[in-house]
Design goal:
The protein is mainly α. The chain contains eight helices and three strands; from the N terminus they run αααααααββαβ. One of its GO terms (molecular function) is zinc ion transmembrane transporter activity.
Length: 300
């Protein structure tokens, strides 16, 4: 016996308009920052523009993913729909963040010893404008970051870029105060290191979902014990719990009962346990009497 529950939309889909607005703001400012970064010869500005370019791609990928995730399957092969598109978009954000951080680090190291005099005034006002744009984008994405890994990837991208804008402002102040261009290079390198470690943290979460690990807040042993406590259940085996996409945990399990137990009642109670105790609405549960030996023939 199985129990199923269809989902009309993912967590990220409800925040799509926030992504659209953040994308528009970020894409517009990227052009501004890149142009003035080149004019002022500021590596901190150029590196922040590079990171903002990654933001644009990450936000764009997140938008595309939310659109794909909501599509109905016309092939008959995607039995879980296309919800995983949002997880892949988060993976793209991770790769972009790592790529940008490496690029910034290489440029920063290569500039050491060069005689470059960035324009501090340009760095200050462009950095300040970038910070305003990032704060607006962060406020738009914050509420969805806890619901969707896709939104979280975009949020972390923008958050890292906000710190990058702060770094640009600090670099502009210090270059103007000391006349030493090293501040521009050093802060650019610090931005690169921070972006890299944020990418690693998000990347681990993406791999956890793609590897179909049990959600961090959902322990397999606790689920087994809760199902085993359902009246009539003698044994629980072949339990699998994983995350399809953010906000959508799924599970499968075999519940062994006595031959005289009402399987329908066991199924209803077990479904209620999964929904109320663990927040899993989509649970496929097979109820089988203890006289059934089919599971013994399964090789793995």
């Amino acid at each position: 016996m199985g129990s199923g529950h269809s989902h009309s939309h993912s967590a990220a889909g409800t925040h799509r308009w926030r992504l659209q607005l953040a994308f528009g703001l970020t894409a517009t400012f990227f052009v501004v920052e890149l142009v003035f970064g080149i004019i002022s010869q500021s590596l901190a500005l150029i590196s922040d523009a590079g990171h903002m370019a990654a933001d644009v791609v990450a936000l764009g990928a997140a938008l595309v993913a939310t659109s794909i995730a909501g599509r109905k399957d016309t092939t008959g092969r995607r039995t879980y729909g296309s919800y995983r598109a949002e997880v892949f978009a988060s993976g793209i954000a991770v790769l972009l963040m790592i790529g940008v951080s490496i690029y910034i680090a290489v440029e920063a190291i290569g500039r050491i010893g060069e005689q470059v005099e960035p324009t501090s005034s340009t760095m200050l006002w462009v950095g300040a404008l970038g910070l305003v744009i990032n704060v607006i984008s962060l406020s738009l994405l914050r509420s969805g970051a806890s619901d969707s890994l896709n939104i979280k990837g975009a949020y972390l991208e923008v958050f890292a870029d906000a710190l990058g804008s702060v770094g640009v402002i600090v670099a502009g102040i210090m270059v103007g105060w000391t006349g030493n261009a090293w501040w521009d290079t050093g802060i650019a390198l610090a931005i690169a290191i921070f972006v890299f470690f944020r990418a690693v943290v998000l990347g681990r979460e993406v791999l956890t979902v793609l590897g179909q690990h049990a959600p961090a807040d959902l322990k397999a042993d606790e689920v087994t014990n809760a199902l085993a406590a359902v009246p009539g259940v003698k044994d629980v085996h072949d339990l699998h719990v994983w995350t399809l996409t953010s906000g959508m945990n799924v599970a499968t399990a075999h519940l062994m009962t006595g031959s005289d137990v009402d399987g329908h009642d066991v199924l209803d109670r077990a479904r209620e346990v999964m929904k109320t105790q663990f927040g899993v609405e989509h649970a496929t549960l097979q109820v089988e009497p203890d006289t059934h030996k089919g599971c013994q023939e399964v090789a793995w």
